Amino acid sequence: MRRWLEYSAEELEWISARREMPRRELHAAFCAHFERTDVSADHLKALCTRKGWKTGRTGCFAPGSTPANKGRKMPFNANSARTQFKKGSVPPNAKPLGHERVNVYGYVEISVAETNPYTGGSRRYVTKHKLLWERANGPLPEGMRLKCLDGDKLNTDPSNWLAIPTALAPRLNGRFGRGYDAAPAELKPVIMATAQLEHAARERRKGGRDAGAAPRRVAARRQKVEAPESPSRTGAPQAEPSSALHRRVISELRRPEFDLPTDKIDLLVSEHWRTACTAARRQRALTRQPLHRCVAVELSRLARRRDGAGAAISKSALNGR
Q1: Alpha-carbon gap, residue 30 to 43, rounded angstroms
Q2: Where is the HNH nuclease domain (predicted)?
Q3: Alpha helix (H) ranges present in the chain?
């Protein structure tokens, strides 16, 4: 049975002090110094691994290091020179400007003189049907795509392509579509018109919800207390109230029992609307008066308090008589 190799303390200290040496050089120096013939390079490497003695090298080029072949030129070799690229040479698979090809999706692509955003080259491939369509109709609007009318993607004539919303495409083909591309030619216009009608109805419903056209939401918005628009920098009051509640409050404040000048009412509403509405809601719960009446009473109190006349309001104004 093979036993473990043993190292003396002196040998271990000697190896540890020279741990940064390459392992082959370290093994040769160790065997020559201690005359050990039973220790192989793998034994010494395993010992350093167990002890955690690393060379300190990462195997990567350190920043700022000088390459070993810096400034050297490749020696001339006739065989390698024969297969090297020459200056100005054109690759045999290079395609000329205007070359056409069919991509994996079945669309025709054409090489144009535009900067390639991926490689920086002077040419790039674009879809031919889109190029011709934009030349005839202008840039394709955002959110739109081109749809082949006759189902033949190789037919790049601009009259064969229609700009449709991107959201309309799934209604023509795909899992929930009507199989537009595979349909007979006489049914394609019907399928297209039906899909466009459904899409327009869908967008109309979405727009109605976003605009709050439902009667329930309109009524709720009218009941909501909104702050008026801020006055201009010149301090001029608003020309018109911003809601029906504003109009009713201003009309209420013009009644004789409040005794407020007309030119002061608009400015009063602009400055104290939020405060008056908050207090009016609490007052409404106690007096059961209409909201516009409670807001008018609170605004009148604020006006009298600001003018130093106290917060007293006549009972007739408070009770709505």
Answers
A1: 12
A2: 128-160
A3: 9-17, 23-34, 41-51, 78-82, 128-137, 169-172, 188-211, 215-223, 244-253, 262-287, 291-306, 315-319
